[in-house]
Amino acid sequence: MAVITLNPRSGKGTISKNIYGHFSEHLGRCIYQGLYVGEDSPIPNLRGIRKDAAEALRKIHVPVLRWPGGCFADEYHWRDGIGPRESRKRMVNTNWGGVVEDNSFGTHEFMDLCEQVGCDAYINANVGSGTVQEMAEWVEYMNSDGDSSVVLERRRNGRENAWGVKYWGIGNESWGCGGNMRPEYYADEFRRYQTFCRTYGQNRPFRIACGASDFNYTWTEVLMREAGRFMDGLSLHYYTVCGDTWEHKGSATDFSLEEYYKTLFKAARMDELIAGHDAIMNRYDPDKRVGLIVDEWGTWFDVEPGTNPGFLYQQNTMRDAMVAAVTLNIFNRHCDRVVMANLAQTVNVLQSVLLTEGDRLVLTPTYHVFDLFQAHQGAKEVACFVQADPAGTEKWCMSQISASASEKDGVLTVTAANLDAEKPAELCLTGFTATQSAARVLTGDIRAKNDFDASPLAVRPLETRLADGNVLLTLPRCSVAEITLS
Ligand code: AHR
Prior knowledge:
alpha/beta, TIM Barrel, Immunoglobulin-like, eight-stranded parallel barrel, 10 helices, globular, binds alpha-L-arabinofuranose
């Protein structure tokens, strides 16, 4: 029997809805085909944006979307993507597949996408190959209603009022594809760029500094020491890779039981990673004013056979769903420091929530986890203590149960995952009284997936009947559950 003890009087504060954010880059078929098909496409669209994709993202209440990259951000010049589409500059996407980028999806199209999805925009500005002036004018273009040439240009391009974009990333992976900078150098660059990321009217930008990759604690130390007081957020990137090298990351669908546990074990290291970066941040920022923004996370496997290696297209199975559940539970439990996270990447790239093929679209197992976790957005975190058997192998050993809990409007929501691939878990929840309870459960074989031809709906959550107020339930093997108590 596994026991989750809840303490509704104790928790770390509010779970930011932005923990449930996403990331969409000009990479492979994420933007083009996945989200944007153009107005003349036979695929149903509103001003070029796929209706099915926008609707699916609206249903899981995507709160914030990061764009245009990724590595692409540090080669992106925003002026190439405004004005009449037929005269927009063409470029080669040197980071991703060497394909032609015709800039038909630019600032106005992205903001339209955000409006259709109902989410906030998170713009990542170019530091690697851009200039301070270029970034400053982008901020002005998007956030000012003043009487300036830049604002007039926006109005000529069809947008009267400022959008008021709050979240601004200053460079991406500046230690790597964003310029191969040393932390000391980047800290100075960040201080300079953020100075000109101006406030217009009520639109004060939330300035996000480029943070570390994985366990690079030195980067966080230097950034916090040299520039901590100038930033509102510091990013962190962590991908779950099953293979031992970047050349052999492992297949997304064809994996062994051991690889299943290895992947979950590595995903669960997000906990130690956040604790490590948080400990450094605490020395410079004990009040936790600076948010940790995990703006790239998720699984990264070998591309599907026969697809462009530069497009990073991978299928998505119950294993990915379990990674999502484990990770989102960790974010919830660190909600005092983690204020935003962005899964990489929304459609057709890495751990996507949506996959498309022509006019067809499937919801991945990962999509359903975001659905099951929705109630946590903006809720008060509730401390929960898990006692459970171990799961996994001797080498990749972890608790059988991953969980987090929150409370909103008198409803307590517990999200629990049974990581064991073979054994169900008898689960008991204690520490509160409830008169009504309900559960939705996502489960399947570790390799179960939704695909276009055979089984687009193979993996989807099912309602489980619980006796009123019941606090005992069985979690099937390899499952994720949303349990609500009131
Ligand atoms: O998400 C794919 C790539 O991974 C991003 O462009 C980059 O920031 C990271 O290395």
